[in-house]
Specification:
The protein has helices spanning 12-22, 36-50, 54-65, 98-112, 117-122, 124-133, 139-158, 161-170, 175-186, 189-198, and strands at 5-9, 73-79, 85-86, 89-92. It has ten helices and four strands; from the N terminus they run βαααβββααααααα. A hairpin with a 2-residue loop joins strand 3 and strand 4 (89-92). The chain is globular, with a radius of gyration of 17 Å. It is 60% helix and 9% strand. 28% of the residues are buried. By secondary structure, it is of the alpha/beta class.
């Protein structure tokens, strides 16, 4: 099966929208906003970095989760300052190195595959199982137990232990993400994925 093509795109109106929202958040507003020409330079770097991994990672996500990509293409909006979200796929540069932006993209792709209609239905019983098994955890933590299990697999297969540890460290600022990593690290990430997929 052909994998979807990721297209990195900068949209000035979309970026301005994000910046207006961020100005209302004291922590985020401290970050430097890049000029448009600098953002286009980052986009070029991202395209170069992502190209060797694109098909391999998209295929691996599909294979491990036993879910098919149903999109021919995915637009990934790059904004000067913002958080990663899976729909519309959006990643903020936030003065981060291009390698870190790629890692955020992979994180969002682990969410993206689940929001497509056929996959929503196929994985519904698996998510119900997660909600019951981790009933004392927040919904965000429950979702990220699966996401982080898959991320650990992808980091170790395509990158390295250092990239994994940096992600875990970065997530310590968010209690729900931190808890999800604690659960994944305290268990076998492969077992979590296998059990999740077995519930389809």
């Amino acid at each position: 099966m052909k994998m979807p093509k990721i297209t990195f795109r900068y949209s000035w109106p979309y970026d301005r929208h994000w910046n207006s929202w961020i100005k209302q958040n004291p922590d985020l507003s401290k970050r430097k906003l890049l000029e448009e020409v600098d953002i286009f330079d980052v986009v070029k770097q991202l395209e170069k970095l992502w190209n060797p991994f694109e098909n391999k990672i998209l295929k691996e996500i599909s294979t491990i989760l036993k879910l098919d990509w149903q999109e021919k293409g995915i637009i990934c909006y790059i904004v000067s300052n913002g958080r990663g979200i899976s729909d519309p796929m959006t990643i903020g540069i936030n003065e981060r190195r291009p390698e870190k932006i790629i890692h955020t993209l992979i994180h969002e792709l682990t969410h993206r595959i689940f929001i497509q209609d056929k996959n929503k239905k196929k994985a519904e019983t698996a998510w119900n199982w997660i909600r019951k098994k981790y009933k004392n955890e927040s919904q965000i933590t429950q979702i990220h137990i699966v996401c982080h299990s898959l991320l650990k697999h992808l980091y170790l297969k395509f990158f390295d232990e250092k990239s994994l540890r940096e992600d875990i460290k970065r997530c310590q600022k968010n209690e729900e993400y931190k808890k999800a990593w604690e659960i994944v690290e305290g268990d076998d990430y492969r077992k979590i994925i296998e059990e999740f997929v077995s519930k389809y």
